[in-house]
Q: What sequence folds into this?
């Protein structure tokens, strides 16, 4: 006999992230590569930390630590489609960041009414 795990709702929607970013209660991280940002911009106010650098830049002991993460509470991560941001969410949780959410891709942010800034 196979048992199905009950699906529990997890995470936050892009709409919720946009609303929380507007009132300053969330830290948004873009984990895409530099070239992707150059082509499409990033979510307004987001911190850019490429996925390949996340382990270092989110570690308070590392010289490249992003000081904005020192006192952050809720974190929303996104990429182009949601796959890399899923990996980023898992990595940040392993590093001890508790309130981390994958909100998908930049298009989800835009569809939810989030502004984009060019870099």
A:
């Amino acid at each position: 006999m196979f048992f199905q795990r009950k699906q529990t709702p997890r995470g936050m929607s892009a709409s919720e992230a946009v609303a929380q970013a507007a009132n300053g209660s969330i830290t948004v991280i873009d984990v895409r590569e530099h070239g992707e940002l150059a082509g499409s911009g990033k979510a307004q106010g987001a911190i850019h930390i490429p996925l390949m650098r996340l382990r270092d830049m989110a570690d308070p002991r590392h010289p490249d630590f992003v000081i904005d993460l020192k006192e952050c509470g809720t974190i929303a991560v996104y990429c182009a489609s949601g796959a890399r941001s899923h990996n980023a969410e898992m990595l940040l949780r392993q590093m001890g960041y508790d309130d981390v959410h994958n909100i998908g891709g930049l298009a989800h942010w835009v569809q939810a009414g989030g502004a984009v800034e060019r870099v």
